[in-house]
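Handout, tutorial session.
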Amino acid sequence: SLLLLVNSYASTPEKDFIPHTALGILLLIIAALIAYTVRHSLSHSRLFSTLCLTISALWCGLGLVYILIGQRVVPFTELKSSLIPGLAAFTLALFIIGTAALFVKTPVLLVIAISISLACAHQIAALSDSDFGQSATAANYLLVCLVCAYFGFGRLLYTITQGKVKPPGTIMKSELKTEQNQSCSDVMSVGLVMNLLSASVLACPLVGVVPQLSVGHVPWLWTAGVFQLGMCVLCYRAMDTLAATFYGFTSLLKFAEGYSALLSLYSIQPFSPVPFPVVFAVLFSVLALFSCQKSLLDGLYQLFFVAYCISIAAQPQGFFQGGTQGVQGAIFVASAGVLFVTTFNMVSSTKIPTGQGHFQALVTRISSLTLRALDKDRHTPHLGYSKADAEELGHACNVLAAFAITATIGDRNPLTVLVLPWAVMAGGVLQLLCGSVAFARGKTLESTAFILYGLMWTVWGLTRFGGLYSETRGFNVAVGIISFMMFNLLLTIAAIFLNVAWFVYAFTFQLILISFLLDAIGALPYGYDIGVTIIFGLVSFYCFLAHIFNNTFQSPQIPLGRPLVNLGGVGGGEGVCPHVPARKATSVQQIAIMKNGGICGMPTDTVYVLVAACNRPDAVIKAYVKKQAEDRPMSMWISSVKQLEPVRHLLSPLLLDFMEAAWPSSISMVIPRGPWLDIFGLGDAAKHIGTPQSIAIRSPDCAVATHLINLVGPIAVTSANPTGEADTTHHNQVYAKLGKKVEGVLCDGPSPENIASTVVDCTKIETGQIGFFRVGLIPKSKVFQIFEEVKNRHSQGQI
């Protein structure tokens, strides 16, 4: 704001104070910093995050336009027509966000949102009439600077004083209490703002605000596309696959719109083939139907995009014709309304009805349908970091890419036929995203397929429809395609062990690769490529429909088929140990099989560990042997000092009080070995706990570990990594290293800390001295502080 304040105040109609290129680069840097840092605030204040991401998009689009102007890609005379559509969208969006801030009584966010909204409005007025001047714009940015300085200084004071100083208006209400059930609604508003932005850009030519869609509008459209890809990722993190699929779809539209506007730089009028938009409309229709389970408002809103795709199919010049632009005008109005409702419901305890529950009520009346419980099986962890499935979007991308390349180019310039953005963005970029999500989910074959197909669509799209094919057709292209065919052959073979659907899916893609090969060597039979592409598109659509249906309904299920071949022989069909989510009490109870002599991997307040119940000596010996840690003795963990009550008279009072003060924490205490250890039932396994002279004992600051210890009693613990290897910081690593040697793994994703516990030498604590074998998560100063406080209370007779 200070940057724009200085530029607005010091510029004249003839010359800008800051050169356009420099101003644009600075705005881009600021936008990137805001977007990067706000990701840490998503769990604290939803409205704050929404506002900052919206402003980040504004600076990003504005900066890119200024760079194009500065580099003379866009003439200076088109500055007005380039800026007004984007500024108009953000004027309305920020006003709506400011209104929501008013309802929840958040004055700082209210002033920031309304001031920047007014600044955009005044900038539009100044662009429309030079006599208006830019003083009003500068005044609004001055107000933003002052409020942001107050807010930032207040937050700094709040942090430095550890919450003792709270300047009014600097603490968000949502920070004063823990928010539960955080969902994708945190980022939904930002996605709606991006729909509002693109609709504004396309509707402005229809109402005469700008002459036509041009290169100057590309920054706004592609900014919307990039931010919606970001919203897609955040929705996957929130495990909302329907919203992620929707924003994946809409991001494709934004990139295609920007691509069409970019072609105007080369005086190319793009032609939109009919099959693709029709198929896109069908996919949007299916998505809209299933989105009704969230709310009727979501389903109805997505129907506008069904109408938009139909309008693209009905008019050959697509985004440049009145029908398409008219539907975008309707989307602009609908997006503004849904943005207000979504933002208001996100922050207010009073909700505007959106039709939630009607879909569920209808399904319950149909005896043959059973909805899948949201918290039962849908997000049970696989062996991965993520709990979200991206297969709906991945299969839909293949549908779109397949039907896009059925368009006949003939003798026309490939760039004039609107295929490149659909093939490269839908088949390529989005599939690579889906592949990464599937990989994080632990689905190796699926992720490999999505990534391989994404690369193939990208290479083929750029080569065949990017104007390069006539120069490269021949042996070189054929060799590359054969390489992809070899990879896909391996996938096809692997798919026979997964299910029928994936086998047919991989096999039909192999047929497409054969058509690419035949085309490269000039031996393609007439109609073969279109035929196999349509078959692959239909198979992909079946998989898309099956996954979105099966993720919604418990029964019936659209069949995907059984594996064509079941593994047999050595290791075939061998059971895997249960890997269950650590945050469920039922999962911890399941892992309590340790009471029967089992061993398991478990998350803690530091790194993952391998544990066995102390009252099962056979399990302790098994854990010691399987860990292969003959030179690394095991330690003992308890849930609280109360578990030492039967041997309290055998331990030092100072030691017990030090334990009470220091635990639960990441502090391990090495104490003298003695007869007190016999009470825990270790038997012959006691020799594996500690050394002949001492034993390490700890009470972890971890609810999962504490609950498990309460169920099975004190446990013997060793690190989950074989001797000499790095600490195990994810349940994936536990399973990979010890999966066949344990009876279960409690899965909790990445460890909260990658540093081991601090090991304190308490063998001579009676002399008033402690030492350190290892300084880990808890620093020496903190341990000494706790110990000195305990000693002082002892010396004063307070204990």
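The second record follows below. Compare its token runs with those of the first.
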Amino acid sequence: YVKRNCLMISRMNPFLNTEGTLTPSRRRTQQLSRTRMRRHGHLQGHRNKRGWVWNQFFVLEEYLGPEPQYVGKLHSDMDHGDSEVKYTLSGEGAGSIFTIDQITGDIHALVGLDRSEKAFYTLKAQAVDIHTGLALEPESQFIIKVQDINDNEPRFLDGPYSASVPEMSPTGTFVTQVTATDADDPTYGSSARIVYSIVQGQPYFSVDAKTGVIRTALANMDREVKQQYQVLLQAKDMGGQLGGLASTTTINISLSDVNDNPPRFTKGVFHLHVPESAAKGSSVGRIQAYDQDTGSNAWVDYAIIPGDDGDAFDVVSHQQSQEGVILVKKPLDYETKKSYTFRVEASNAEPDSRFLHLGPFKDSVTVKVSVVDVDEPPVFTRASYVMDVYEDSPPGIIIGSVTAQDLDPSSSAVRYSLEWQTEADGCFDIDTLEGTISTNEQLDRENAAQHNITVVSTKLNNPLLFSKVSVIVNVLDVNEFPPELDAPSDTFMCEKSRVGQIIQTVSAVDRDAPPLGQRFFFKAPKELRHRNFTVRDFGNNTAGIVVRRSGFQQRVQDVFLLPVVVEDSGYPAQSSTSTLSIRVCSCEGAEPHGPLLSCSAHTVMLPVGLSIAALLAVLLCVALLIGEPFTYLRWGRKDKEALMTSREDIRDNVIHYDDEGGGEADTEAFDMSTLRHSQCHRTPFSPDIHRESENIREFIEYRLEESRRGFGAPPYDSLATFSYEGEGSRPGSLSSIGESFITDLGDFGSLGDWGLPFKALVSILDRQTHTVSES
């Protein structure tokens, strides 16, 4: 070993001999070089260069010899063997592990070394003068490497190991890889070269000798046959050669499950029982098909095969127990059907397509369910009842009946009662034996249009068994309220309104509940045919007020009253009459055909009501004052037609004057008693009345024409009267006071509600009516 170190050093420096010293030829070369340098004066102060260089030494690990292990020798060119040079050593382990002979330069290892703990040491060496201690050359660094020997066996650091491989796997399927480590030097020899082999576990598994990869060696291993396997694996160094160190580890290999087995029922028929009172969704019983697989591969789906009696039941899968739970799907009745028979199919929820060739992955079984009879409450013939009653029906009227039956073999009698939930339920009563429902009092649809009552049926032999049913009572509307006209209080029109023009659209409202398609009909009263306006029914529950003539004048008459009859389509039909107030407007500068909401403010002459006797007295006075023109009018206008020949053409305005004064209540302006008792003034003229009747009629027609055309009107207060046509006239009187008011209105008592002025008018008209009646 010492020679080997020396040779290695020699290979590093060819001028070293086998003992690590300089050869004679190299020494002579150095001496000649120094002589030349002295001659030329270059030796003094010149740094001496080391003549040889070492790099590393080797020491054998785990040395057990009695003496310190020799490592190598250091020598300097400045050492001539005269013991004038001393060698020093420093660095890792200097003095404790390694030592050097200061005179000879020999290095020894004092203790045994372990390469696995430390593979090399770095040290420094230097040659110094033994007397002065001065360095003869610079310090040099070298390495001492610990030479490896095969003193460490391979080790499995994580053993024992566990692995898994799917069952039914083909040959060569990867299972796992196991690796061992060796603390020896892998760069020196074969101490760390490991080889793997299986000691136990064949023929099921194999291992790659170099990589330690374990694979299946037998195909189609079945988990249901054997699930766990144990493999003993060995790792040996020195490439597996004889003398190498070895170790073993255990690998536990399990076969994981695949879905290679179908579910199977253990018997052919399942018998179940269920009471007929079982509610929908309640459990009847459980069936089970067993699957040898585990986990999700053992999940089983259950389904009822269509047909037979399976429509009354359902089946669901229980995820934990993998059982099929039979549930009630429809109500059961022992009296109707006592047993059910159907088939249930079990199949894998997640089949594996690789194993479908092994056969169908499903199975079926017959299920028989027997219905058990129980004592049940009475059953109503309907789930709910709806009854109708008119709101004007008298108390005690029967509105309907309910029926419940006991379907059990005992067939007990049934008693009926009402379950009062609200105060309104007290409006009804029920016959406990027959189940007929009647009213206790008269119903009002306007208060409650519908009642919801609950009827209870109880078995006579077991009062604890009862059932309930809902009865809805609809209160039907009776046409008890007449429709009401829906129109503005006042309607306005222009003087220039055309014939056929619609001046107002009206509708109607009814407090009764309108049935589908209810209609309102509008018309004028048959006994009062108005010549100025008419009512036109549009057919859509609306109507229009239509003008029948033209030539209206506000100063002649500014207000017209039009009665309108509204009738509904109910049974019995109800109707009401409303009076529209139509006001005439001048509409100066306004569009005559446009809608009017009001009239512009201006002075309007009001009518003054006088008795017939007063009017006749005034007419006679006027006739005597203008006797001459009568003769002319008699002969000159004999052929002129009468302008007012119809009974319907009646003027309500008799007297117009601009100064209203105190109204009808003002009796100071003239003596009312004189006008009321005109007999004293008529006596002197009574013989002439018959003779001048024709003249008066023609005079009235002449003035009427002037008034209608609007020309020749005097610019002062005037009294225009034309209430007397003469005795025996066919058309009858034109006076609205003498006849029209009586015909149209009859009783004037309602006019008193319009205020104080009209109360005086009512008193006059009442006396006038009595006078006419007596005549």
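Points raised in discussion: The longest helix spans residues 756-774.
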